From TrEMBL:
Organism from which the protein derives: Paracoccus amoyensis
GO molecular function: ABC-type sulfate transporter activity; ATP binding; ATP hydrolysis activity
PROSITE patterns in UniProt: ABC_TRANSPORTER_1, ABC_TRANSPORTER_2
Keyword Lipoprotein: no
Record protein name field: Sulfate ABC transporter ATP-binding protein
GO cellular component terms, A-Z: ATP-binding cassette (ABC) transporter complex
Keyword NAD: no
Length: 369
C-alpha cells in the first residue's frame, strides 16, 4: 500500500469538515476525489500534502508515519487550479525551480538539472514552450508547465486540486487525456480533486465520492456509475428521478411503470425508492396507461419528454432523437425503466421531485393515478 489513511478527522471551530476518512491508495494508482463544494476534498488533500494536520486519525506512506513529517520531507508534487508560475521565469526556469531550491546536499548539479528539465519538456510534449514566459502561454499550457514543475522533484505522490477547473470544456478534455497518458507512463501515485464527474470517471482508476466530510462510496468508475451505493451518490450521478415503488419477490412495482427489465434485488418486501436517470426511462405508447405526454422538446441529439399523470405525477425522460419518432404530446404512455438503483424505504425527496416522499406506492396508485 502506498498511502494509508484511517479515521482522519478535521474540525474548524465547531464544524467537523472531515469525519473519519478511511482510504488506502495503491502505488501508481490515480484516484479522483469527487464531491460537491464543501465536501472536504481540499481539506483532505492539504492534510496529505502536510499543509494542514488532522485533529485525529493516521496517515502513512509505505509504512512511515507522515504526520511526523513536514511537507518538504514528504516530497509531494502539487498542482492547483490557479497555479502561480513565476512570471519573470521562462518555462524552463519554472520547471527547474523545485530542484534549484533543494538543500545543497540534495541539489543536483546544473547540468543534471538542465537534463531533467529537458527530459520533462519532451515527456510532457511542451518542448516548444521552453523559452516562453507564463504570460505568453494559454491556460492549458500553463497547467502543463505546472505539472512539469510538480514532477521535476520526482515526487512520491502527486496531488492535483481542480487543476483544469478554470479552463474551457475542450481544453479540459484534451488535458484529461494528456494527463492520463502522462500518468500511465510515469506511474506516479496521484490524487486528483474535482467536482466534475465526467473528469473523475474518465481519468481515475478509482473514484472516491465525498459528501459532508465522509466517503459515501469508493469504486471503479463503472461500478459507481452502475451501482451507486447511497441515495446521495445516485442523485449526484444524475439519477434524478426518484420513484416510490413497492418490492414484491425481489421486483419493484409502480403504477404506470414497466419495471420488468430491472434485475431482481434481494430487498425486503414493502416500500422502496427507485432512482432513475432520465435517459433510462422509455415512454411506450399505451392507450390504457395513466401517463400522457405533456411536453416534447429537442436538445439536439436528445428529446426531452415530460409525462404526467392526471393526479400530477410528473416524470422527465430523455430519448435519443432517432427513437422518438411517433411520440406526440397528448398521447398516453407507460414508462419503461431500463436501468435504475433501488434503496429500501422511502428516500427523502427533494422539493422538485415528482412524488411526495410519504406517498406509498399503494397510495400513489390509489390517489395519484
Ligand atoms: N481554514 C478553514 N477554516 C474554517 N473552515 C474551513 C477552512 N478550510 C475549509 N473550511 C471549511 O471546510 C469545509 C470543507 O472545505 P473544502 O475546501 O475541503 O471543501 P471542498 O470539497 O474542497 O470544496 P470546493 O470544491 O469548493 O473546493 C467547507 O465548509 C469550508 O468552508
Amino acid at each position: 500500500m502506498s498511502l494509508a489513511m484511517s479515521n482522519i478527522t478535521r474540525r474548524f471551530g465547531q464544524t467537523e469538515v472531515l469525519r473519519g476518512i478511511d482510504l488506502d491508495v495503491a502505488k501508481g494508482e490515480l484516484i479522483a476525489l469527487l464531491g460537491p463544494s464543501g465536501s472536504g476534498k481540499t481539506t483532505l488533500l492539504r492534510i496529505i500534502a502536510g499543509l494542514d494536520w488532522p485533529d485525529a486519525g493516521n496517515l502513512s506512506f509505505e509504512g512511515q508515519d507522515w504526520l511526523l513529517k513536514t511537507a518538504a520531507q514528504r516530497k509531494i508534487g502539487m498542482v492547483f487550479q490557479h497555479y502561480a508560475l513565476f512570471p519573470h521565469m521562462t518555462v524552463r526556469e519554472n520547471i527547474a525551480f523545485g530542484l534549484t531550491v533543494l538543500p545543497r546536499a540534495q541539489r543536483p548539479g546544473k547540468a543534471q538539472i538542465a537534463e531533467t528539465v529537458q527530459r520533462l519538456l519532451t515527456f510532457l510534449q511542451i518542448s516548444q514552450l521552453a523559452d516562453r514566459y507564463p504570460s505568453e502561454l494559454s491556460g492549458g499550457q500553463r497547467q502543463r508547465v505546472a505539472l512539469g514543475r510538480a514532477m521535476a522533484i520526482e515526487p512520491r505522490v502527486l496531488l492535483l486540486d481542480e487543476p483544469f477547473g478554470a479552463l474551457d470544456a475542450q481544453v479540459r478534455r484534451d488535458l484529461r487525456r494528456w494527463l492520463r497518458s502522462v500518468h500511465d507512463s510515469a506511474g506516479i501515485t496521484t490524487i486528483f480533486v474535482t467536482h466534475d464527474q465526467e473528469e473523475a470517471f474518465e481519468l481515475a482508476d478509482r473514484v472516491v465520492v465525498m459528501n459532508g466530510g465522509v466517503i459515501e462510496q469508493i469504486g471503479r468508475p463503472d461500478q459507481i456509475y452502475d451501482h451507486p451505493a447511497t441515495p446521495f451518490v445516485a442523485r449526484f450521478l444524475g439519477l434524478t428521478v426518484e420513484l416510490p415503488v413497492v418490492m414484491k419477490a425481489g421486483r419493484a412495482e409502480a403504477a404506470g411503470f414497466d419495471l420488468t427489465a430491472l434485475p431482481r434485488r434481494a430487498l425486503p418486501e414493502g416500500p422502496a425508492t427507485l432512482f432513475l436517470r432520465p435517459a433510462d426511462i422509455q415512454p411506450v405508447a399505451d392507450p390504457a396507461a395513466p401517463f400522457h405526454l405533456t411536453e416534447i422538446s429537442s436538445t439536439g441529439a436528445l428529446l426531452r419528454v415530460v409525462a404526467e399523470s392526471d393526479s400530477g405525477c410528473r416524470i422527465e425522460a430523455e430519448v435519443p432523437r432517432r427513437d422518438g419518432h411517433g411520440l406526440e404530446t397528448g398521447m398516453n404512455v407507460s414508462l419503461c425503466a431500463v436501468a435504475g438503483q433501488i434503496f429500501p424505504g422511502l428516500a427523502s425527496q427533494r422539493a422538485s421531485s415528482p412524488v411526495a416522499a410519504e406517498t406509498t406506492p399503494h397510495a400513489l396508485k390509489e390517489n395519484r393515478l
